[in-house]
Amino acid sequence: xxxxxxxxxxxxxxxxxxxxxxxxxxxxxxxxxxxxxxxxxxxxxxxxxxxxxxxxxxxxxxxxxxxxxxxxxxxxxxxxxxxxxxxxxxxxxxxxxxxxxxxxxxxxxxxxxxxxxxxxxxxxxxxxxxxxxxxxxxxxxxxxxxxxxxxxxxxxxxxxxxxxxxxxxxxxxxxxxxxxxxxxxxxxxxxxxxxxxxxxxxxxxxxxxxxxxxxxxxxxxxxxxxxxxxxxxxxxxxxxxxxxxxxxxxxxxxxxxxxxxxxxxxxxxxxxxxxxxxxxxxxxxxxxxxxxxxxxxxxxxxxxxxxxxxxxxxxxxxxxxxxxxxxxxxxxxxxxxxxxxxxxxxxxxxxxxxxxxxxxxxxxxxxxxxxxxxxxxxxxxxxxxxxxxxxxxxxxxxxxxxxxxxxxxxxxxxxxxxxxxxxxxxxxxxxxxxxxxxxxxxxxxxxxxxxxxxxxxxxxxxxxxxxxxxxxxxxxxxxxxxxxxxxxxxxxxxxxxxxxxxxxxxxxxxxxxxxxxxxxxxxxxxxxxxxxxxxxxxxxxxxxxxxxxxxxxxxxxxxxxxxxxxxxxxxxxxxx
Length: 576
What we know:
CATH class of the largest domain: Alpha Beta
Number of strands: 20
Helix content: 25-40%
CATH architecture of the largest domain: 3-Layer(aba) Sandwich
Strand content: 15-25%
CATH superfamily of the largest domain: P-loop containing nucleotide triphosphate hydrolases
């Protein structure tokens, strides 16, 4: 059985005509092709390269492209070509050498006969294209990058796709009525792909605004019926924005958007920027909405002052009950929230009761979309439930079947750090993370270390933006504020003295004196709210549950409190 071939031709009518006469399969065979000019690239699949090239040559949006590469293989069928097309779009988007011109509605992830055998061929095709200069990095390097992980070129699972389609069909209807205001919510546990859905929605709205009518829309795409001329008019002048409360994740997504032509000028915003914008927005998508804040002392004094000014300007009075979600709803006709209230980690985060009311509102309007399928952690939902129960007063009595997922308790921090180094050398993206149970002494360049245990001295993350990819991150420890919203391959979680078992009651308690996130335990004096020990326990357990769900391939833990360590060890020994 012969292998694949890659045919090269110029993107001109004469070159297409010459190739049609020379290659019989050019007119009637399933193929995958790439059209590029050294900067932009478009990837497609077709049963007739001849017909498809003629269509593309008529497209104004592709007039600047110059070269075509067509991948032929006598084993190709329609399903294999769709799969290869999808793979190349995702890898090109994650590599970053080219700006990918494709819409994201054609990305598929469907199984078919002998798919595993085709996957081997696809890797060979990738390496051949890499050798010809189409990729700068290997597949593992690409898959570990933010460009890949936060890319809009993702294959959605069924529940994600249904949520996106329902929201988009609702927008098509609602945008025709200027006075209608709506709110929708996508709710899911860590790793269910909420951020990906938000990014996908942003790209899909932009694609609808600029799509080329001469381009075929995949007939079996879940979103193909959206690409009609009337919808292009609806979406073409929309003011849309993506709100990310956390600085690190906001910066990372902004970098990704700059590499995607349809999103290069898309607005990635803080809640303050939405509230202070010159014009209202048509659609605002809010990722990590549980990190929006309520009125109180903000991270910086200037933000605290701005908070009151914004509220007065928008609502005519300084109502202390008004929060950042209220701002956004006031400034946006259509608001889409992505949230998990179990990831709220500070007293200034909007109270869960507020989101309960919002979720009830979206449920009543049939605009609430739960996501259940675990997309990040290879241990699946079983691991997620196990990790949640592990940091509770109702611990599991055995470890569920986690398949190949690694979970291990370490008694020596140095040994866990060494395992993280080994996994990083093997897979990349293995990092130490911890609860905020140590002062950040190294921040002032004092020469002092932050975390000293078992003869090991470690410092908190030096960078608060894109820390995971920074050069020194393997030898540092990431906090909740640098890793929330991100994926790792392996996480080494240090559970510090902020969480311990009370020897008298045998129950978990928060140790206030060993919790050093100042903004994580302060009272909200502005609103007369006291952060009780019970509140603090909820924030700290939420922190650890987030940290315990960062690792896609495995999680290692080190526990400072002897009683909690003993409880977890007993669980592991009982299971063995």
